[in-house]
Amino acid sequence: xxxxxxxxxxxxxxxxxxxxxxxxxxxxxxxxxxxxxxxxxxxxxxxxxxxxxxxxxxxxxxxxxxxxxxxxxxxxxxxxxxxxxxxxxxxxxxxxxxxxxxxxxxxxxxxxxxxxxxxxxxxxxxxxxxxxxxxxxxxxxxxxxxxxxxxxxxxxxxxxxxxxxxxxxxxxxxxxxxxxxxxxxxxxxxxxxxxxxxxxxxxxxxxxxxxxxxxxxxxxxxxxxxxxxxxxxxxxxxxxxxxxxxxxxx
Length: 250
Description:
Structural class: mainly alpha
Helix content: over 70%
Strand content: under 5%
Oligomer: single chain
Low-confidence stretches: none
Distance between the termini: 50 Å
Number of domains: 1
């Protein structure tokens, strides 16, 4: 397939009917694969890995904390890309996909913050510290709340998509800060990355392998939820359009 033909094929999914037809076929496989990965990874990690020699059993929080933190950041990046597509190409499905991802990313951020606090209390002796990464994650969560509230506050959907797209651009700075805060500031309490291209930075293989399975489960769950919520947004927009047409004809 040539590059122009491939691009045309990709853009064809901006058609709501094709998007719905494709995602409805994919979602049963996504739900199943996500469930298998999550159950396998969490059971493997929590019950079949040893305690860490320094952190004890608290190390096992990484099977929830690391995947949710990764998805909190990458969900915002996905929203940014979808919003840019809307701003440039005016494809409504991309705007609705960004809107659908907002609450999912917010929940992932909450999971990361709560599990981080549960891990931090025995390790640092406190539930919260104004650590660079923790603070940037809290700010990212506030951006999620602002993004969701902005969609709800503006009645015209195109105007809401425009303004939330701009908010995504600004919030992406904090999404990147959340990912690289430990590298930017050395004085933070938060440990270094659990996963890295440098093998020396990764956790031991006994924790690493189930962690990868958990991450795969979170990724698949995120995709399935975004597909499901995007379909719901498309149908809700259709219903509003029909209601407006009926009112206009009355």
